[in-house]
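Section: Multi-chain targets

For targets with more than one molecule, the full set of components is provided together so that the structure can be written out for the assembly as a whole rather than chain by chain. Components appear in the order listed by the source. The example entry contains three components.
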Amino acid sequence: MVNMERLIKNYSCGEITLLEIFEEIARQDGYVSFDKLNSLSRELRIPLAKLYEAASFYSFLPTAKQGKYIIRVCNSPSCYLKGSKSLIAFLKKELKIGLGETTKDGRFTLKKASCMGCCDKAPAMLINGKLYCSLNKSKVREILRGLK
Amino acid sequence: MQIKIDGKRVKFEEGETILNVAKRKGINIPTLCYHPDLSPKGKCRLCLVEADGRLVTSCNTPAKEGMDILTRSKRALEARKLNGELLIANGKEENEMEVMKVLKEIGVKGNHFKTPRKVTCSGRLPIEKDDRKCVLCGRCVQVCSEIQGINNIGLMNRGVCAEATTPYNLPMLETPCTFCGQCALVCPTSALRERALSEKLVKAMDEMGNMIGNSKFYVAQTAPSIRVSLGEMFGVPPGTLVKGKMVSALKKMGFDAVFDTDFAADLTIMEEANEFVQRFSSGKNLPLITSCCPAWVVMAEERYPYLLKHISSCKSPQQMFGAVAKTYYAQKIGKPAKDIFLVSVMPCVAKKFEAQRPEMDSSGARDVDMVLTTRELGRLMKQKGIDLAKMEEGEFDRPLGISSGAGAIFGATGGVMEAALRVAYEVITGKRLKKIDLKEVRGFEGIREAEIDIEGTKVKVAVVHTLKNIREIVESGRWKKYHFIEFMACPGGCIGGGGQPRPTTNEIRKKRMDALYRLDYKMKLRISSDNPDIKAIYSEFLGKPLSPKAEKLLHTKYKKRAPKYF
Amino acid sequence: MQVIEKTRWSGLKVALGMPKRKVIERVKSCGLTGRSGSEFPTGLKWESMAKERGKKYLICNADEGEPGTFKDKFILDNNPKILIEGMAIAAYAMGIREAYIYLRGEYSYLKKKLERAIRESGPYIEGAGLEIKVVLGAGSYLCGEESALIESIEGNRPIIRKKPPFPTEYGLYGKPTCVNNVETLSYIPLIILGKWNPNLLLFSLSGDLKNPGVYEIAAGTTLKDVLAYAKPSMEPKAVYFGASGGCLPYKLFRDLPIDAKSVSENGAILGARSLIVVGQKWNAAEISKVLSEFFVHESCGYCTPCREGNFRLLEILNRMCSGKGENDDIAHLEKLAPHIRDTSACALGKVSTAHLLCGLKYFRENFVELAKGKKSIGLKEETEKCR
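Its structure, encoded as tokens over all components, is:
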């Protein structure tokens, strides 16, 4: 569980930045929840709207509950040239969801992502921060199977 | 220091932006996200000019020595036009909005883009938002932050998903919103506006003037601010008194009786001045803080429950009026309270919330049935083909139509304080006040303090406007220094309210304020206690100020509210 | 590759023995410029920082977000200590005691490695009196820009600040801040040791190639020579310089030296030296559509032309690529693209349409055939739900 008290204490003595608190919350809960952000707002006496303005800006800080595994498929040019389009179509079909949606069992959320610096091992995707590259359909199938 | 604008050499001061200089010289540059009371952001990019060959936003680019500026070059004009087209590509257009005026000026006719960017519309109470019209100018966010210090909303998300909304899109009632409506006031597209009137109310208004089968008796009350602002929607300069024309126009719309909220303001003063003297003599629960601003009341209920016992138990003039209209007046015309349909015209959005408060039914029916903002009334009149500017002068009806100058100045910041002190003087000393103009409490500074000498008794008063300044006075603890405080949520007081005609700037607010003070100055009747209709209502009906009957009808209670966040 | 040399802290040792002033002069005279694509003279930046009194910060910009760029990742993965050494020398020269490495969120798997490298460097960088902290980004291309990066660390909405003032005057928490790219800082130890070869440049090569990867290329090498190593998997059509640098046709560029000058002379920008090689089979409008999606996704939404303009560009390109092109489309594209470039509030907006401007210049026929509405790339119009 996120220890908000510890985080706030560390922030107050300059050991961590506000951005890191957002990230820690997102890392533990999968998203930046109202309750946690609000307690941050109360302790630091920063209006919630100001915190939310910052947190909601980032692709990696969802503000609503996501699936257990967030699949981010790179769709920038190098990966596109290597077939990210059909990979995304494949994932949509396998998971039976559209982009930005979550599977019924709450396991997977599918998103398109910007270049993740794996252009020489395209196409690539990130799942909860772990990088998978040089993908093809069978590799992806295997990866999904291994994720409970 | 000099720059060149459109070929002419112009002097400028350090820190002036290109737009500042152009305005000074009477050169018109279209703007949208710019507002004179807010810091310039350069978001809409409609104010583009060519400076030394580059396109820059004139609103936030500082003038620099030797700059060569072209405000109407072909390049600048075309750039403005394309940005204008991009802005309206999203949504619905309505003719009277500020954005349409600006776009017409720029020459935007239509757009060739297909899809609207956003398709949501959410009715939140009493302010609603139609995202289809939002151009993300950010003025609402700026006002809520820079002027009101509430920071309830922000520009959330990123890119085309950006939205000016509350965190997590929480509904208004769960937020620290006070319904002051300043956000709706500065919205150039009406994306933020007062909640649309319910079907029931629209039907009731449509039936007005229908004599057959309609047992309802339609009564209107108009706030002090309306008479110096409504005209602006009909081309009249701000600060022009349109009192008589307003009354005639309302009669033409079909109201059976048109009364003056200023009368109820006098009534409020009678109750509040006596309440003040009571507290002042006993020394308990001081300072007394005014209660007629519903946004301030909501703010106190949300943030400062410890102040609730300091707030005057007096209802606002709007609500006092409703209570007596449906009892005292209803009896006079032999109608039951439920057959009177009272429409209240207010410069305020929060008054809609106030009228709906469950406890506001001491008359046996809803004390106030419907609240129309100045904007809504102006629009309704136009729909019915009524041109306010061309109406003849009319008179308010009796017995709730006579008011003093003190009632009139309620619309200005400091007005309630001055009106109350004029009567408090008499109650404390038993003598008539000679110096009626209490200039110490007037003005436009956010926080004004004065020490009023009432025959040797020193009364420390403070007058504060904008929620930001109220927060300052309360949260610093300075509020404890005073005996009597007037708090108004809107800049300038009610004449600068969230329901007023657009545009409203501080310059326009001052003109409206001046008009009210001029009106007061010219009147023979300047002290609330001298008002014959007030004397009558007490002698015939209420008895005396703070009587049990007055307590029942004219006083109220407050309750703690708990927004989910701050 | 010079940047993966194991200097074993020799550069730092030499620098600590020099007066700070001399270190800065060395950096100035060697002509090092910012390797994030900015090409700003590093020595000049350091010089103005050194003059500032009071608390100052050094930030290593590891938010390598430009599509097609992965050279910084290569350095972080293979030789992080040279970066840390470079930061220590920089901190010493400018009198800075607190530094951050802003590591993009997509590289979060490198954080542990980086932190371990910092720990192991402890005894060495203590001599420079420096503390280094790794802060992760959270998925925003805009944070690669120095002032947005600073806003991001502060916990604010990370939009680009109005400049002036520049970060060297008013940066992190209002203090003077020097923001340098990973590669730039990594060369510093070599410069101090006199081993730096300014004519060897790091390039990220990707796309329709058999051997994509990070290449160290000598100045003056032509594209044709480089591709002899990179081995295109089909006849190349064009090279795109990241997402924001525009493109040049292979035929035109093949025999030119790959440097900023010859690229800009032909209307594109070399930037951070990312070359995305696009093969003959692709339609330039489709590539522009993919790039347009990128900019729409990454735009901060502050100003009208970039937010609305790029959205409308994508709308038109989407339609064109799904067989619903209209005759007016090219005229609209030609009107919007330069408009967005000229009236946007920040650098992202300014470069967001370079791909289209170059695409229309060099591959107009691709767009024309789609505008006729007869051809389709077989794409369906698709939208992703907004967060």
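The beta strands of chain A are 69-74, 108-113, 125-127, 130-132.
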